[in-house]
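Researcher: Here's a chain I'd like modeled. Treat it as a single chain, no partners, no ligands.
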Amino acid sequence: MIAVFDSGIGGISVLAELRKLLPMEDFCYFADAANAPYGDKDTDEIKQLMRQNMQQFLSLGAKAVVLACNTATSAAAACLREEFKNIPILGIEPALKPALQKTEKKVLVLATALTIREKKLHDLAESLGEQERLIMLPCSGLMEMIEENPFSEEIERYLGCLIKPYENEISAIVLGCTHYSFLKPLLARLFPEAELFDGNEGLARHLQKVLHEKDLLGQGDGKIIWQNSLNDAAVNELYNRHCENIFEEYGKHIC
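Model: Modeled as a single isolated chain. Structure tokens:
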């Protein structure tokens, strides 16, 4: 079984890509909804939360862990790999390289405040040598709006105001939070000249490669277990059902 983590529903966009590429693997999707959002927390708090989450994944017998959350990857992936060396831990990162390769104009990077603040993103940008073409734009509050309703008119107004000032400078938008993948149809309509990039498909291919190299490719039945950190049993069940419905709906658009 492969554990897929996010603070909320965003990682479902990654899970859909994983399931598409690895249909015979079993997955457990875990949303730390009780502690969401992660984007405005400090790094030390996220590291501590992720240590607790890792214990949960190990107790479930996970053979690999996918951090389907840019913020958790930025803040905690390195220390988790150091502390939990016996299990592959894969993280997602913004798709800066393919976006920069596709255009000579500027690239807008949408991400949480913590992802943009963390050294990991800036190291990635520096390694590509084209920081001057990247516009890093923190999207405070956007993850929470998507959690509530990824199709709300409020999000359309938010994105319009946020991105409009850069519209004539950019030809690509990098979605640096897995929650933002749900906004692809809206962004494509609002900014049709900008190509959209996320790291979901690349992460799925990376997982497939790692499982193959470590002889961990399984032959399950493709089941998905839904879990979250909410304490109220009734609310917990409703949230899991909400996640399952989003997965089924999103999956229709990537198959």
